[in-house]
């Protein structure tokens, strides 16, 4: 090597210099601190009601009958297609149904603008047995097969007595889901 204003390097000088740079670079890289960190996610079971519809969850329509009929009438809930209940597979799902807008010792349909009511009962099974009756504000298990589209099993029983005033009788119920 010659120093001064002119720099002259031999090939062996260049190799030594490159080895020195490589060694220093490797030792500096090895000297950098490193730490691990954990990555995780907790996925918890749950349910969601999807849809862009408005209005009621569904209807329980007992149909049209003569005011002088004395008969038991059954019906089942027809869910609004604008809504869809979706849950994590295997989740335990329960529902509670209140007494409705016209509750007085039982759920009642009421004639608009009048005091006249007609009592009705709700059940969780189509057989309408006492064991499957849905009590007011009591939790009832919902059995389902398709967690991607859960249908509520609600069946109604209305008893016409033959002395009913003519008109349209209605009620509004609130369903609360829990999981």
From TrEMBL:
Could you confirm whether the keyword Ion transport appears in this record?
no
Spore coat protein U/FanG domain: which residues?
A: 35-176
**Keywords, alphabetical:** Capsid protein, Virion
- Judging by the UniProt lineage, the source's domain of life is Bacteria
Which SMART domains has this protein been placed in?
A: SCPU
Q: What is this protein called?
A: Spore coat protein U-like protein
The source organism is: Biostraticola tofi
């Amino acid at each position: 090597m010659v120093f001064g204003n002119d720099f002259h390097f031999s090939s062996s000088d260049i190799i030594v210099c490159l080895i020195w740079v490589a060694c220093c670079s490797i030792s500096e890289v090895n000297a950098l601190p490193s730490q691990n960190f954990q990555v995780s996610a907790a996925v918890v079971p749950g349910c969601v009601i999807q849809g862009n519809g408005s209005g009621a969850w569904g209807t329980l329509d007992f149909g049209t009958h003569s005011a002088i009929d004395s008969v038991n009438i059954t019906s089942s809930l027809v869910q609004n297609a604008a809504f869809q209940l979706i849950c994590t597979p295997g989740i335990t799902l329960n529902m509670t149904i209140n007494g409705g807008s016209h509750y007085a010792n039982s759920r009642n349909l009421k004639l608009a603008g009048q005091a006249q009511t007609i009592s009705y009962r709700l059940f969780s099974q189509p057989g309408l047995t006492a064991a499957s009756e849905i009590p007011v504000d009591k939790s009832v298990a919902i059995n389902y097969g398709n967690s991607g589209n859960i249908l509520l099993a609600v069946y109604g029983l209305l008893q016409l007595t033959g002395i009913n005033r003519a008109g349209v009788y209605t009620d509004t119920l609130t369903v609360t889901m829990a999981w």
